[in-house]
Write a structure and sequence with these properties.
It comes from Parvularcula mediterranea. By secondary structure, the chain is α/β, with parallel strands linked by helices. About 25% of the residues lie in helices and about 20% in strands. The strands form three sheets. The protein has an eight-stranded mixed β-sheet. A two-stranded antiparallel ribbon has the order 3-4. A two-stranded antiparallel sheet has the order 11-12.
Length: about 240
């Protein structure tokens, strides 16, 4: 599955792996799981197993076919560092990344310890941005210190869905922070003060800040269509990206 993405902070998605399992509260209403079920019902290629972890080596060359420099979100429908994805297969993904230096690859995981283990004896490609999900204090915040131990040129946090005040974050060595509320019929609301706190910490520490969305609840807590709630935080759109030079 490759195609133009509707995710505000990327351009294309590349899914050489599909399927995942839940590891923390941010997974509770996983959009990828719901989408995978619909794609299976439609008979879409790569979703024969629904949301079970599936390796799709026929997709490994997809970015090689695109010469235009592109920002790719890797595995929007999975987690590259799931324990059912062998390191030998992750190496093949990294080969594609290394051999296509015109592209940038955004790799987001909720399993940073396995990511750190993989890169303990391997070099992180310069065009691979490594990130972790930080949805709460108990599960999300501890991932930050693990990420910071991986020698990536660009590290980022996806604070989405933001489920509570995540407190004071240690952003040293972090280059980009994305914040967003949850969307969907069962979405949990995000309070404006939680998002403001992260925004202000990014400003304090000179970290690029990207406000992705309010989601299904607006800044007033009222449920509406996601599009109606928009992307403004205190009347401003935040679309900062990390420096890559």
């Amino acid at each position: 599955m490759v195609g133009k993405s509707h995710i505000e902070w990327t351009e294309m998605t590349w899914n050489p792996v599909t399927g995942c399992t839940k590891v923390s509260p941010g997974c509770k209403f996983c959009y990828a799981e719901s989408l995978a079920k619909r794609l299976k019902a439609m008979g879409a290629n790569g979703y024969d197993n629904g949301f079970q972890v599936s390796l799709l080596p026929e997709r490994l060359d997809q970015p090689r076919r695109r010469k235009t420099p592109t920002m790719w979100f890797v595995n929007s429908m999975s987690d590259l560092f799931h324990d059912k994805v062998p390191f030998a297969y992750v190496e093949r993904v990294m080969e594609t990344i290394t051999e296509t230096p015109q592209h940038i690859y955004q790799i987001l995981t909720k399993r940073p310890k396995r990511m750190a283990k993989f890169f303990a004896r391997r070099t992180v490609p310069e065009n691979a941005w490594l990130g972790v999900t930080v949805e709460d204090r108990k599960y999300g915040v501890p991932r930050i210190s693990v990420l910071k131990g991986v020698p990536a040129k660009t590290r980022f946090l996806s604070v989405e869905p933001l489920l509570e005040d995540v407190g004071n974050l240690d952003l040293e060595g972090i280059h980009w922070v994305i914040v967003g509320g949850e969307s969907g019929s069962k979405a949990r609301p995000m309070e404006a003060e939680w998002a403001r706190s992260v925004r202000d910490q990014c400003a304090r520490d000179n970290v690029a800040f990207f406000f992705k969305q309010w989601g299904s609840h607006g800044d007033d807590g009222v449920r509406r269509a996601k599009s109606a709630n928009g992307r403004e935080l205190d009347g401003q759109t935040h679309d900062e990206m990390p420096l890559t030079g």
